[in-house]
């Protein structure tokens, strides 16, 4: 499988380079992409997965493994399900500043912007598609904030319980005498922790239900696990989950 993937990537790169170097009225060449799966009628292609992996600096694009594709396919499925759901809600429009900031956060994961741009070019990811992918993920982040984080409720009793069971024992083990109630800094931290945990749990439960409801048609051999794999607890963001 890895050899086939490597060959696909090399062929993809050669065709892209060939198109860039071929003068215009010459005949253009096209590379037929591979359909990996469909989700509620929306297609996931092998290019989608390779582009997703291109955002991960830990992945060597010359030796993509089947495990890499399976992992990123699962994340892409969750992102697509959230994107489909987000399309049903009137979310605020993205600003140019938000898009530019997201791009810079991603670029900073790499040694330099030149290295990042060369990486995108190597997998045929042009500026327009890059912009679209960033916007898609930002819209999903907005939906996640709206759907799973806005309405999380953490009560005073929740804070005190967490303080008694998690914070005070650790302080005592470190030889620190802890007061019976948390200070404001500790309270703020506990609220953040509990809010994040509850939002992630809500998101994970929603994704599990969405996968059960979705019409998922796996087409590539490594996509067969889509109908059985559990969704990631992490939020699909601008950068893909690290292995």
TrEMBL record:
Protein's name according to its UniProt entry: Uncharacterized protein
Alphabetical list of SUPFAM superfamilies matching this protein: Triger factor/SurA peptide-binding domain-like
């Amino acid at each position: 499988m890895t050899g086939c993937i490597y060959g696909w990537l090399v062929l993809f790169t050669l065709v892209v380079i060939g198109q860039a170097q071929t003068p215009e009225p010459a005949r253009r060449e096209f590379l037929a992409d591979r359909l990996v799966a469909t989700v509620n009628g929306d297609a996931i292609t092998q290019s989608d997965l390779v582009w997703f992996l291109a955002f991960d600096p830990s992945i060597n694009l010359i030796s993509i493994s089947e495990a890499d594709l399976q992992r990123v396919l699962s994340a892409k499925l969750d992102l697509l399900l959230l994107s489909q759901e987000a399309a049903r809600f009137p979310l605020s429009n993205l600003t140019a500043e938000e898009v530019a900031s997201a791009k810079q956060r991603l670029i900073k994961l790499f040694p330099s912007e030149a290295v990042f741009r060369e990486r995108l070019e190597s997998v045929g990811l042009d500026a327009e598609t890059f912009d679209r992918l960033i916007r898609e993920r930002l819209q999903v982040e907005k939906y996640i904030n709206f759907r799973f984080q806005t309405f999380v409720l953490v009560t005073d009793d929740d804070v005190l319980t967490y303080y008694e069971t998690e914070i005070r024992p650790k302080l005592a083990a470190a030889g620190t005498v802890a007061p019976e109630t948390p200070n404001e800094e500790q309270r703020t931290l506990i609220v953040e922790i509990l809010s994040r945990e509850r939002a992630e749990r809500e998101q994970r439960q929603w994704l599990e239900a969405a996968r059960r409801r979705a019409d998922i048609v796996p087409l590539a051999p490594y996509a067969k696990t889509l109908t059985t794999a559990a969704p990631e607890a992490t939020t699909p963001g601008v950068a893909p989950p690290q292995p």
